[in-house]
TrEMBL record:
One GO CC term on file: cytoplasm
Names of the cofactor(s): pyridoxal 5'-phosphate
Protein name as it appears in the record: homocysteine desulfhydrase
EC number: 4.4.1.2
Domain of life: Bacteria
Transmembrane regions: none
Family note: Belongs to the trans-sulfuration enzymes family.
Primary enzyme class: lyase
UniProt keywords, alphabetically: Lyase, Pyridoxal phosphate
Substrates-to-products reaction catalysed: L-homocysteine + H2O = 2-oxobutanoate + hydrogen sulfide + NH4(+) + H(+); L-methionine + H2O = methanethiol + 2-oxobutanoate + NH4(+)
């Protein structure tokens, strides 16, 4: 595997993750800011209340709009993404929906990749589709096809990189350039990469999205999502969709994610290091037909990954020979790896998209998206890499 062009070894990511935001309690000096379990806040008077209800920058009014624990998390994300501002939601899909519902109106057109995360695909095609928003699901890895798909009414180009569950890599800077050229908003779901592995805003994207439930939290014990971008857009989404739809992150979960960001770098380094070893093992295995990992030179997005990522991530998907039943059999025989549909956990998590996360997707559509019957997705955890390999070896021996 070739090293990424920017391996991030000399960066200050960990320092910023630890020290950004309001880390201490100004009242007591406690090293960790408390969790503010408050739904509403007392005003000093009518004028003070009026200001805070109208503008969250003036202070806290109601947790459906903002909360001190949420502010700490948003501040850390904004710092790590080098964004003007960030905005937290109750879930990753809440963040996606918050952006889409704010930005799109009937008659608008969206360009998205055909392998877009299933819930995002559903919102675009089914929920927004019935209100007159049209989406073209295409191969966004082909910039010529993306430009050909642009219409006068196109308002958004939406991508994922790396994509779920195929680990497809998109040329982020190329998409951003097209957005600027045609005055179209560009957004990326960067959940698999985390703020540590890539910086989409610095590559020209307008909005970056994370499901904080995954690597940012790291322990599958909290749900949340976050957007990062311009101050103006984050403020507008807060007052428009977050406040009025109510996909609000809990103070407890905001605290969990703030803490997760403090250890994100050290965790991601181990995830990446072990994933490289496991990907190499898969590549040589006789019962595996194909391996999707951007660190492999055989991956079609390898060169883009080298340019835009500091490392190749902890997510791998692979296709076992034997199709649907073979994929299921591997699931039934893992012992150390945990059978679960989450990812980014300290434990290695494994799942079979065709029978689990994408069970409701039409098979023809699923296959066209690259999600084959025998595809398996694995999130490499923090266990010893050799222990993970041994478990996968014995599971594959069952085929």
């Amino acid at each position: 595997m070739k090293e990424p062009e920017n391996n991030g070894e000399d960066g200050d990511f960990a320092t910023r993750g630890i020290h950004s935001g309001e880390n201490t309690c100004s009242r007591t000096g406690a090293l960790k800011a408390p969790v503010y379990y408050a739904s509403s806040f007392e005003f000093e008077g009518v004028e003070d209340g009026a200001q805070k209800c109208e503008d969250f920058h003036a202070g806290y009014c109601y947790t459906r709009q903002s909360n001190p624990s949420q502010t700490v998390f948003e501040g850390k994300i904004a710092e790590l993404e080098e964004a003007e501002a960030a905005l937290a939601f109750a879930t990753g899909t809440g963040a996606v929906s918050g952006l889409l519902l704010h930005h799109l109106t009937p008659g608008d057109h969206v360009i998205a990749d055909k392998t877009t995360y299933s819930s995002t695909h559903y919102v675009l095609e089914n929920l927004l589709g019935k209100f007159g928003v049209n989406t073209s699901f295409i191969d966004t890895g082909d910039l010529e096809k993306v430009e050909e798909a642009i219409r006068e009414e196109t308002e958004l180009i939406y991508i994922e990189s790396p994509a779920n569950p195929t680990i497809k890599i998109i040329d982020i800077e190329g998409i951003a350039d097209l957005g600027r050229k045609h005055s179209i908003l560009t957004a990326i779901d960067s959940t698999f990469a985390t703020p540590y592995l890539q910086s989409p805003l610095n590559l020209g994207m307008d909005v970056v999205i994370h499901s904080a439930t995954k690597y940012i939290g790291g322990h599958s014990d909290a749900m949340g999502g976050v957007l990062a971008g311009s101050q103006k857009m984050m403020d507008n989404i807060r007052h428009d969709t977050l406040k009025n739809i109510g996909a609000v992150i809990s103070p407890r979960n905001a605290y969990i994610f703030s803490r997760g960001l403090e250890t994100l770098e050290v965790r991601m380094k181990k995830h990446c290091r072990s994933a490289r070893k496991i990907a190499g093992f898969f590549k040589e295995h006789e019962k595996i037909k194909n391996v999707n990992y951007p660190g492999l030179e055989s991956h079609p997005g390898h060169e883009n990954a080298r340019k835009q990522m500091t490392d190749y991530g902890g997510m791998i998907s692979f296709e076992v020979k034997g199709g649907l039943e073979a994929g299921k059999k591997v699931m039934e025989n893992v012992e150390l790896c945990t059978l679960a549909v989450d990812l980014g956990h300290v434990k290695t998590l494994i799942e079979h998209p065709a029978s689990m996360t994408h069970w409701y997707v039409d098979r023809e559509q699923r296959l066209e998206s690259g999600i084959t019957d025998g595809l398996v997705r694995i999130s490499i955890g923090l266990e010893d890499a050799e222990n993970i390999r041994e478990d996968l070896e014995q599971a594959l021996a069952s085929l």
